[in-house]
Amino acid sequence: MAQIVPDRASFKDPDAHVFSYHGRIYRSFNQRGAQQFRAFAQSGLLDIFTQRGWLISSHPVAEGKLQDLQGEEAQSALVLEHPLIPFLSYCYCWPFDMLRSAAILHLELLRECLAKGFILKDATPYNIQFWGPNPVFIDVASFKPWQEGQGWKAYAQFCRLFLNPLLLESATGVHFQPWLRGSLEGIAPSELSGLTPFLHKLRKGVFLDVVAQAWLERKVAKGSASLERLISSAPITKKKVLSTVERLHGTIEGLKPRPGSSHWTRYRVDSSYDEEAWKYKEQFVERAIGSASPNTVWDLGCNTGHYSVVASRRSSYVIAMDSDADAINVLFHRAQEEQHNILPLVMDVLNPSPDQGWNQEEWPGLTSRSRPDFVLCLALIHHLAIHGNVPIKMFMAWLSALADRGVIEFVPKSDPLVQKLLRWREDRYRDYTQESFEAALQRHFRITERAAIPGSERILYAFAR
């Protein structure tokens, strides 16, 4: 008998929570939650948002269909079924423009909700997932009727988790991903204010949403002003909330990441490959993926995603990962413009995102979320073995636990890019040879095809169990 599996991140809303059952995704509501959802649906907003692709689709489950539900779910006033998101991702793995597009989606939802007498309970990027390069709001329990004078209670949360990380990177060039990974509540105004250049502080949006908020935080913390008195002295009307939403929308639309110094965004231009080599490698990768017919492909160390795009032609879904946030931002724009089935993520294979949050279960780490059918490790092993000092044997054991099939590229010490890595290092990598590489690979896999890339000493391997 299949068991109900509660979603480990769905425990903060007392009126609704998510669970999986027979491999499908459901959301159950108590009486209050069901009443709020039905009011939202009757407003027409549910259908409008779903048709636009802004909101995940929701299908009511007929009473009695889930007869063998037990415990709390059996007492639910309403159960909805949602489609399964192919791969869960979180804001600390998104590049600048992914977080920016999620912030704009949230504000557009909020603006239209307010126009029809509704508001969002919270303002967190964890309520948004990306289906490929497209953001979709997934928490249908987050909509509730607006009450005049209540204000936008989630404003501070929006600033901490959406606005402030974007401002940090835009104003200083410091990538926000490590900060959000280390602080799941986001960046406080007082923290950002201390890092923001003086001239940026004078901009209207920054002054109101960062500098003034940091001042208010300090006043409240010192007890020189009470939050209740501040609110009661200036009741917050819907018009004021809409004005704030419009201001934030304009601020965020105008934010741009600082031009990065990353040389990986120019990898194809600066690499030692010529066009013949690029074409040969592309054909090898496409042939290997085509013969495997995988559903999901992980491209580890994808750079700007040239081979992720190749993989997307032969698979249902590609998770493209690289530690370089600038390169991933480039790939995000390409995937969005060309509508590839690619999810680009800022992810360092040497230090992937771990299990985080409450009881280290709320936000699962990389390998806890899913397992690929096929993996690409192109021009990756030398970074791990030489830059990261990960023994090849150890990497192959990790790869074996991750996937059954894939393509991997061996880059010898004689390669110009490896020579750059070794320039300021003592060469302690005696086992970094083609023979040792093949022996480690063959401990876990069969080599189904081997080919030298023309004009280089690099070798491509297709492998399988």
What are the SSEs and their pairings?
Elements: E1 5-6, E2 16-21, E3 24-29, H1 31-42, H2 45-52, E4 59-60, E5 78-82, H3 96-115, E6 118-120, E7 128-131, E8 134-137, E9 143-145, H4 155-172, H5 177-182, H6 189-195, H7 198-201, H8 204-222, H9 227-233, H10 238-254, H11 267-270, H12 275-292, E10 296-300, H13 306-312, E11 317-322, H14 325-338, E12 342-346, H15 366-369, E13 374-377, H16 381-387, H17 392-402, E14 405-410, H18 416-422, H19 434-442, E15 446-452, E16 459-464
Parallel strand pairs: 10-11, 10-13, 11-12, 13-14
Antiparallel strand pairs: 1-2, 2-3, 3-5, 4-5, 6-9, 7-8, 14-16, 15-16
Task: Report what the structure shows.
By secondary structure, the protein is α/β, with parallel strands linked by helices. The chain folds into three domains: 5-84; 108-254, no CATH class; 263-464, Vaccinia Virus protein VP39 (Rossmann fold, 3-Layer(aba) Sandwich). The protein has 19 helices and 16 strands. The protein has helices at 31-42, 45-52, 96-115, 155-172, 177-182, 189-195, 198-201, 204-222, 227-233, 238-254, 267-270, 275-292, 306-312, 325-338, 366-369, 381-387, 392-402, 416-422, 434-442, and strands at 5-6, 16-21, 24-29, 59-60, 78-82, 118-120, 128-131, 134-137, 143-145, 296-300, 317-322, 342-346, 374-377, 405-410, 446-452, 459-464. The strands form four sheets. A seven-stranded mixed beta sheet has the order 12-11-10-13-14-16-15, sandwiched between helices. Helix 3 packs antiparallel against helix 10 and helix 6 crosses helix 8 (204-222). The longest helix is centred in the first third of the chain and has 20 residues, at 96-115. The radius of gyration is 25 Å and the shape is globular.
